[in-house]
């Protein structure tokens, strides 16, 4: 089958991961979480006492990613759980401003997707990584709803933060991700923006699958 790429971008707490995984499962295609790659790399760089403002052009030369049975390994170590902390999210956003980190991960993401069929989730997928993706979705939700969702996720993991603390983390992340000089988070010009506020996960998945199906029909009819 030929290459078919679905980019799902959007801010923290918009529901990207849940929705992207379900869309990939429904369509029986692969799922790539690029945020997980930024998180893993950020933890690695931090463990080497490097900071986002350093020259990191060679810092990732010996970094190797591997996906196995849904788990992410960095240089042979399983990092699936470690990367999910609030601290890893903050570090990922900090290191994501560095052009060497972005360039290395962008190359890798393109290589993984080449000739494949993928739902790819991130911040700059439709604009920079895969500007030729057949379907581009930008998922968003009201600030309050995004904070509530993130708070619930953290509570389920036993992390007790207040609404205000989570709101501050998300505010900072939104600001940093959308204002950085390289590949800032923004909808691609041809992205379909879906506001998930008040919608169920199933509703959003259905909406995206219908967009994909129209696009596939269109591709086969060459419209
Ligand atoms: O989606 P996430 O919360 O796992 O992403 C963590 C951080 O990684 C996010 O705040 C910014 C960065 N990121 C990025 O800059 N570009 C991507 N394509 C994905 C994530």
CATH topology-level name: Rossmann fold
Characterize the main sheet: 5 strands, parallel
Q: What's the multimeric state?
A: single chain
Bound molecules: 2'-deoxycytidine-5'-monophosphate
Helicity level: 40-55%
Uncertain runs are: none
- Can you tell me the number of structural domains? 1
Anisotropy-based shape: globular
Any idea what the CATH superfamily is called? P-loop containing nucleotide triphosphate hydrolases
Order of helices and strands: EHEHEEEHHEHEHHEH
Query: Please, how many helices?
Result: 8
First-to-last CA distance = 19 Å
Structural description of this entry:
This protein has 223 residues and is of the alpha/beta class. The chain has a single domain (4-218), classed as Rossmann fold (3-Layer(aba) Sandwich). It contains eight helices and eight strands. It has helices at residues 16-27, 34-47, 86-95, 99-113, 125-129, 143-156, 163-179, 201-220; strands spanning 4-9, 30-33, 65-68, 71-74, 77-78, 117-122, 135-140, 192-195. Strands 2-6-1-7-8 form a five-stranded parallel beta sheet. The protein has a three-stranded antiparallel beta sheet with strand order 3-4-5, covered by helices on one side. A hairpin with a 2-residue loop joins strand 4 and strand 5. Helix 1 crosses helix 8, helix 2 crosses helix 3 and helix 3 runs parallel beside helix 7. The protein starts with a strand and ends with a helix. The model has no long low-confidence stretch (mean pLDDT 94). The structure holds 2'-deoxycytidine-5'-monophosphate.
């Amino acid at each position: 089958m030929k290459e078919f790429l679905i980019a799902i971008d959007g801010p923290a707490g918009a529901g990207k991961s849940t929705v992207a995984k379900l869309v990939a499962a429904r369509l029986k295609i692969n799922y790539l979480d690029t945020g997980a790659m930024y998180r893993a790399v950020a933890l690695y760089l931090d463990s080497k006492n490097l900071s986002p403002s350093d020259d990191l052009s060679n810092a990732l030369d010996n970094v190797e990613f591997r996906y196995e049975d849904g788990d992410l390994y960095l240089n042979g170590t399983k990092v699936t759980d470690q990367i999910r902390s609030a601290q890893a999210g903050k570090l990922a956003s900090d290191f994501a401003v560095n052009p060497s980190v972005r360039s290395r991960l962008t190359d890798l993401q393109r290589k993984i997707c080449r000739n494949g069929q993928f739902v790819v989730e991130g911040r700059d997928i439709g604009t920079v990584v895969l500007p030729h993706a057949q379907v581009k979705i930008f998922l968003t939700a009201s600030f309050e709803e995004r904070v509530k969702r993130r708070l619930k996720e953290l509570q389920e993991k036993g992390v007790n933060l207040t609404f205000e603390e989570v709101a501050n983390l998300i505010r900072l992340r939104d600001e940093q991700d959308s204002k950085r000089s390289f590949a800032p988070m923004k909808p691609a010009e041809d992205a379909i923006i879906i506001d998930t506020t008040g919608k169920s996960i199933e509703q959003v998945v259905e909406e995206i699958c219908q967009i994909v199906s129209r696009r596939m029909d269109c591709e086969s009819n060459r419209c």
